[in-house]
Write a structure and sequence with these properties.
Helix content is 34%, strand content 24%. It is of the alpha/beta class and 152 residues long.
Length: 152
């Protein structure tokens, strides 16, 4: 009888652990599919994920949105919509990326047919050396030229 009671107690204990974990997994933030074609844009995208407390995935079907980070000297280097992920990636890869004067951060909604529609765009300067400034990163509060609205 002791073994049976112990087994029952352990089973209830495991159910309790599972019920504790389930809310933690469901409380996870939005999931992004990243398009960041260079090392500097990947670092910036990872920083945004960390600050916004977003997760990322390698499967676009599992994502809530697409986060695109490119570097360019143009004012709006990406198109407002793309018919395929390949075309979006090709457009991102065609940017300056390591030598562009500004980071451009885009969020795209994912349509059911796996086409993409731009929902927001923000740009801000990269420091003069072309590297991220660890002492003065772009502010993350709402307002013009700020990233804060991305986390909303």
């Amino acid at each position: 009888m002791r073994v049976g009671a112990f087994g029952l107690l352990m089973g209830v204990g495991w159910l309790g652990v599972g019920s504790i974990r389930a809310p933690l997994l469901s409380a996870q933030g939005p999931i992004a599919y990243l398009v960041a074609p260079s090392s500097s844009t990947q670092r910036e995208a990872r920083r945004m994920l960390r600050v916004c407390r977003w997760s990322d995935t390698t499967a676009v079907r599992d994502a809530d949105f697409v986060l695109v980070v490119v570097r360019s000297s143009g004012s709006d280097p990406m198109e407002p919509s793309y018919d395929s992920l390949k075309w979006m990636r090709d457009a991102a890869n065609s940017q300056l990326n390591e030598s562009g004067a500004q980071f451009h951060v885009y969020l795209y909604t994912i349509r059911q047919d796996l086409s993409f529609l731009q929902s927001s765009h923000q740009s801000y300067d990269v420091d003069g050396t072309g590297a991220l400034s660890s002492l003065n990163p772009p502010p993350l509060s709402p307002g013009p030229n700020r990233l804060g609205f991305f986390c909303g």
